[in-house]
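Write out this protein's structure.
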Amino acid sequence: MVLRKSIVTFLCIICILFASCIEVVKEISNWTQSEDINNIEGNTHYLGDDGIKLFLPSSFKQYTSVEYISLIDSLITDNKELEIERARFRNIREMEGNHYIFFDHSISATYTINVLPHTPISRQDAKYLLGIIRQNQEELSNKTDLGYTKITAKHNDNGRTQVFKAIFKIENQKLNQQAFQHAYFISSKQKTVLINLMAPFEVNFDPFLEKMKL
């Protein structure tokens, strides 16, 4: 239960870095437009401490925690927005297990992955998490100018792997800005990972997950 509370907190603290720093994305990076992952230029990242292989577009570069804090300090000028992102990042660092950070400067997207103690997630668990997430989003909406729209929420279990996927659109209607949060909870082979992708638009990231080796 403690672990799942931590996961809920992680999913509910929404980064608004991208909505605050980017007014309009003039050119979309090629990897977000391609439907064939075999034609996408990418790199394999080996998370040696956890025995996991990631495949990400080549525009993503890995950052240490110190480097990422310096990055957000340089990109966010609003104190309130900076504190929200710092709070989200503190939660990432405080979760049990290792965490890894990647950033794509071409579209200002952040990819984080937390490797957690093995925690299978049932369909009922997924419904519970989604309900708590929506409740927290409503509370955040009352405190900020941000609105949240669920794009999709799915749970799959093939007997070997459980996946909970949720995508949310985050809007600041006053400033006419938006961002998208793509969250994945994956449990397989006695490993559990929590992936969060923040980008200024919705992307199909599933093909990259299919190339991930737990």
